[in-house]
Every structure is written in C-alpha cells, then in structure tokens.
Design a protein that fits this description.
This is FAE domain-containing protein. It contains 5 helices and 2 strands. It has 128 residues and is mainly α. The chain is globular, with a radius of gyration of 18 Å.
Length: 128
C-alpha cells in the first residue's frame, strides 16, 4: 500500500489563499473559495499522480511513459504524451469528492471507468 501526500498550501501565496476562513459584515464566519481553486486542485492531483506513478505502475507502463518523454524532449518528436494506465496497477480509486466537476474531470483525464469511480461517487453527497 502506498500513500502519497504532497503538501501545496504553503508552496505559494496562490495555493495558500485559495481557501480561507473569513468573517462577513454581520459577524458570521464562513469559507471563502478563490476562483483559482479548481486550477490549484488540478495541479495538486497532477503532482500526487506523478509522485505515485513510479511507486505503483508496472515497469511496462513506466517504460511507455519514459519513451514518450524522451521522444518529446530529446528528439522533439510530435508524439502525444502517454498517459499511463493506472488500472493496470490499482484496483480501486477513492478520489476526494470535492464536487461533481472534480470527479468528472478526473474520470475523463485518467480514462477511468464508471466502475473504477464508483467509490468516489458513493462518498459524494449530492445537494438536496
């Protein structure tokens, strides 16, 4: 089992200030979400996946990824970046259910099936 944690909150003012607790004019305390939150969350997920990949992916997936990196960066070839198949290494995915758009985007970008995403969707509370 591998757990990856890549703290980003203090890495930049942009990250640090994307979610803050504030008091309004009436004295009520609430959360303030920056418009950049989705972008910052996407960067955090990308960092986590990049860190986790070498720990869990089979050698064949790592070599395919490395080959496209070398072709793109060294030989300046116009090949599309290879997205490793994480389903070759992981049976279950439980992604932070920050919202429908987060889950939909991760499902699309990682090419995960509805079956793989079920644990994440089951933890997501839909508004009534």
């Amino acid at each position: 089992m591998h757990t990856v944690r890549t703290p980003r909150g203090g890495a930049s003012d942009r990250s640090y200030a994307c979610v803050t607790q504030e008091e309004d004019g009436a004295g009520n305390v609430g959360e303030s979400l920056s418009k950049e939150l989705m972008s910052i969350a996407g960067e955090a997920h990308r960092t986590n996946i990049t860190t986790l990949g070498p720990l869990v992916l089979p050698l064949s997936e790592q070599l395919r990824f490395l080959a496209t990196v070398v072709l793109r960066r060294v030989f300046r070839a116009g090949v599309k970046a290879y997205l490793p198949d994480f389903t070759a290494a992981l049976d279950h995915f439980c992604i932070h259910a920050g919202g429908c758009s987060v889950l939909e985007e991760l499902e699309r970008s990682l090419k995960l099936s509805v079956w793989h995403m079920e644990p994440s969707w089951m933890t997501h509370v839909l508004p009534e």
